[in-house]
Design brief:
A hairpin with a 2-residue loop joins β3 and β4 (134-135). By secondary structure, the chain is mainly α. The strands form 2 sheets. A two-stranded antiparallel ribbon has the order 1-2. It has a two-stranded antiparallel sheet with strand order 3-4. The chain starts with a helix and ends with a helix. The longest helix has 44 residues, at 27-70. It has helices at 2-23, 27-70, 75-88, 98-113, 140-145, 152-181, 198-204, 212-218, 221-241, 249-256; strands spanning 118-119, 122-123, 130-131, 134-135.
Length: 257
């Protein structure tokens, strides 16, 4: 593990060296943003596949509703029919999870790298790097202890919080509008009855983007940069991939009320 972390630290350090002439003291932070973009670019084909799967599931909603109505007294037959429908349409219910799952190792690598004082027995020189005076290995509570929320370090976090809030609000409004325009048939259990809690989960889902605010508060600044960059990428990517499934005017009116 230490050898692997050394190689990763060397990669981030080399990217920072390349970007140093342009970004000066913020070169490591710029390297993290670039690294995040490269990771997201690598999983973009999976994001496109997930978008196609989501559009297919929306298209299949009338058929799914009909199958559940037809086989409501025979849950086993209903589940088999749903599986056959998804297979025939080449739709995987799990396709939307793959892009997020494949990004997790990159996030944990950065988290571990900027949480470790030593790498392979040597001082972690990356911890000396900063973003506008805020050390990449420190946290929000460290910034509060050095000048408070409006001090130099605190302002860096306030800037990240502002970006996250804007992106989360954009995601919230878009998700609410899409859910209203394309209502999904509630999931049912083996007995054919709606799964308990799924209705509440559907209501809370648009708010999940705001959870990033908490993440930024508890991880090292380097990992927070990864999260903010990735979240922003996701918002732009989804707006592009789902541009041909806009919310209807009815959905907008529903959201406004």
């Amino acid at each position: 593990m230490s050898v692997f972390m050394s190689a990763f630290a060397a990669l981030v350090g080399a990217m920072a060296d390349v970007m140093q002439p342009l970004f000066q003291g913020a070169s490591a932070a710029a390297a993290i943003v670039l690294f995040t973009a490269l990771v997201r670019l690598a999983v973009h084909p999976l994001s496109r596949a997930a978008a196609r799967g989501q559009k297919a599931r929306i298209r299949l909603q009338p058929q799914i509703a009909e199958l559940r109505k037809k086989h409501r007294k025979n849950p086993e037959r209903m589940q088999k029919a749903l599986m056959e429908l998804h297979k025939a349409e080449n739709v995987s219910p799990l396709s939307g999870c793959l892009p997020s799952l494949l990004q997790m190792p990159a996030f944990f690598l950065l988290y571990h790298l900027f949480s470790s004082p030593t790498i392979d027995g040597h001082p972690n020189e990356l911890l000396d790097h900063q973003l506008f005076g805020a050390p990449l290995g420190e946290h929000w509570h460290d910034a509060l202890a050095h000048g408070g929320p409006f001090g130099p370090q605190g302002m860096v976090y306030l800037g990240l919080y502002a970006i996250v809030t804007v992106v989360a609000t954009f995601n919230y409004r878009r998700t609410k509008q899409q859910m209203a325009a394309n209502p999904v048939t509630p999931a049912t259990g083996p007995d054919g009855q709606p799964v308990p809690g799924m209705g509440m989960m559907a209501k809370l889902m648009p708010l999940m983007s705001y959870a990033t605010l908490f993440t930024v508060s508890v991880v090292p600044l380097a990992a927070a940069l990864y999260v903010v960059t990735s979240t922003t990428w996701t918002a732009i990517e989804r707006a592009f991939l789902y541009r041909d499934t806009p919310a209807t005017s009815t959905a907008v009116a529903t959201t406004a009320t």
